[in-house]
Design brief:
The complex is a heterodimer of chains A (183) and B (119). By secondary structure, chain A is mainly α. Helices cover 71% and strands 0% of the residues of chain A. Chain A has eight helices and no strands. The longest helix of chain A has 29 residues. Chain B is 84% helix and 0% strand. Chain B is built from five helices and no strands.
């Protein structure tokens, strides 16, 4: 029912550039997008900035949403692309700073904090690559199906499954997750 | 049918999956003006886009007015160099030939200007 309403709101945005309808879409999905980017980046402020950028990109590209999959799946694809673009930019920025002799920690300030300052989940995510982290978060935190993750990451379903398998293996070898207390 | 089976297989989770889900679970983030801020940005961008073309045309027009008048004056002086008999012959067939030629040139310049602004 929610998905059908999403599609109606998208139709209003596409046909009449309805900002109210877009605002409703943002209200509905901001929490999931922000949570996704927080887990991906490990930085609350950066994640919220990226979330704003993500919704602005979504506004610009909303006509490319075909309506076949879920809107949140499409939105997380935009969020993931925004994250990768930002990462590329900050990497280039760090390289420029290094070239001119500045010492910088921009690139790897995420997931490099002291072990006792971070939560279990952050420790868990730190052993994963960006791609593995994104796919694991989409699967376990956002509840996306393998098909939806495949659409969002532009990877074949088989690759998505093997990335999840590999991610779980990494987590298993680094932590005894069965010891984790719920909540 | 096959897709249903795939979806079911997708949803089959073991204890480890459920444990991971509980670890990845996070409380919903309060909006706290986030969506209002996004919508505000979107509205500003819409206004900027709507204003961009008229403002660009205005600025372009202001910049182009001086060279354009100089160009028209040059054309007028060039037409004085042409033999007057030629105008006489043309004027026999088309009485406002000079004005038509000048108008056509101006139209071509305007069209080129518009094309450049659009690009």
């Amino acid at each position: 029912m929610y998905a059908a309403e999403d599609n109606q709101l998208v139709a209003r945005v596409v046909s009449a550039q309805d900002t109210q309808a877009f605002g409703e879409l943002v209200r509905r999905h901001q929490s999931q997008v922000r949570n996704f980017l927080r887990k991906l980046s490990g930085d609350i402020t950066l994640a919220d900035d990226l979330s704003q950028d993500c919704f602005m990109h979504a506004w610009d590209k909303i006509q490319t949403f075909s309506g076949r999959g879920s809107f949140i799946g499409w939105l997380l694809k935009v969020a993931y692309t925004t994250f990768l673009q930002s990462k590329r930019k900050s990497k280039r920025y760090a390289e420029i700073l290094e070239e001119v002799g500045h010492v910088t920690d921009i690139e790897d300030r995420r997931y490099s904090v002291q072990a006792d300052e971070v939560s279990d989940l952050e420790k868990l995510l730190a052993v994963l690559t960006d791609e593995e982290r994104a796919i694991m978060v989409m699967s376990y935190a956002c509840g996306l199906s393998h098909r939806e993750i495949s659409d969002a990451t532009s990877l074949p379903v088989g690759t998505v499954k093997s990335v999840i398998f590999r991610g779980k293996q990494k987590i298993r070898t680094s932590f005894d997750i069965k010891d984790h207390q719920h909540g | 049918m096959i897709s249903k089976i795939i979806n079911m297989a997708d949803k089959m989770k073991d204890a480890e999956d459920r444990l991971l889900e509980s670890m990845f679970a996070a409380p919903p983030i309060a909006d706290d003006g986030f969506s209002a801020s996004v919508v505000g940005k979107v509205r500003r961008r819409l206004w900027l886009r709507r204003l961009a073309l008229p403002v660009a045309m205005l600025i372009g027009g202001a910049i182009a007015i001086k060279p354009l008048t100089a160009f028209v004056t040059l054309l007028a002086s060039l037409s004085a160099l042409l033999p007057q008999e030629l105008f006489g012959v043309i004027a026999e067939f088309i009485p406002q030939a000079q004005t038509v030629v000048l108008g056509a040139l101006l139209l071509a310049v305007c069209l080129l200007g518009m094309r450049t602004l659009e690009d």
